[in-house]
Backbone:
């Protein structure tokens, strides 16, 4: 703990979620800097990924066609490693962890988008996480057609190449998940300007720090 860090500071786990093109990654560095400005140490990470093994699994997941259950198990395998190597140790050391995606993405993409039964990944969630959940999830919500227009033209990965119907199901599953856990998940209208969103994020951080 640094001398400028508030004495009562405890590590918090914040996740950012949204359909591809919703803009969460744009806001992540700014959010991390704002929290650092309060004296906290912040670890920025992502899923799938965040560890050397997780990044190798990410390469496969984003490029290699596979059965939806294989995909789901690899997401949780990467997550298990991520929790063991990065998230839990950092929180234990009093750091804040901001992850670009976590388990809500599995509910949205594999559950909503691909239609995998929730019972299947609820078992994996329990196995990998026990009761562990983010302290706060910022869900960037945007209509599918707007998000798709924002996606960079060029090399799209295996998920980004999915059709509008897939992303409509992903979005619906995210909204469903947010509604079932309103204390943890904050819905942010990602159609606002970057500056408007910064004000909202600043207000949210102020209640946490
Ligand atoms: P990213 O491009 O936002 O980093 O995310 C990579 C892709 O992985 C994105 O299209 C969503 C997908 N994904 C899942 O399908 N399930 C998951 O559990 C996670 C973490 C990501």
Residues:
């Amino acid at each position: 703990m640094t001398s400028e860090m508030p004495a009562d500071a405890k590590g918090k786990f914040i996740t950012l979620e949204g359909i591809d093109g919703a803009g969460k990654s744009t806001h992540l560095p700014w959010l991390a800097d704002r929290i650092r400005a309060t004296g906290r140490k912040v670890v920025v990470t992502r899923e799938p990924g965040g560890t050397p093994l997780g990044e190798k699994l990410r390469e496969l997941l984003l490029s290699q066609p596979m059965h939806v259950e294989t995909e789901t198990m690899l997401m949780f395998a990467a997550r298990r490693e991520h929790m063991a190597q990065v998230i839990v140790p950092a929180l234990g050391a009093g750091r804040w962890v901001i992850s670009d995606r976590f388990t809500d993405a599995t509910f949205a993409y594999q559950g909503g988008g691909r239609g995998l039964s929730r019972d299947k990944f609820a078992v994996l969630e329990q196995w990998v996480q026990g009761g562990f959940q983010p302290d706060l999830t910022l869900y960037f919500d945007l209509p599918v057609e707007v998000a798709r227009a924002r996606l960079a033209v060029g090399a799209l990965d295996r998920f980004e190449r999915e059709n509008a119907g897939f992303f409509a199901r992903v979005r619906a599953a995210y909204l469903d998940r947010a509604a079932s856990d309103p204390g943890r998940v904050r819905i942010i209208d990602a159609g606002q300007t970057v500056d408007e969103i910064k004000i909202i994020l600043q207000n949210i951080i102020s209640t946490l720090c």
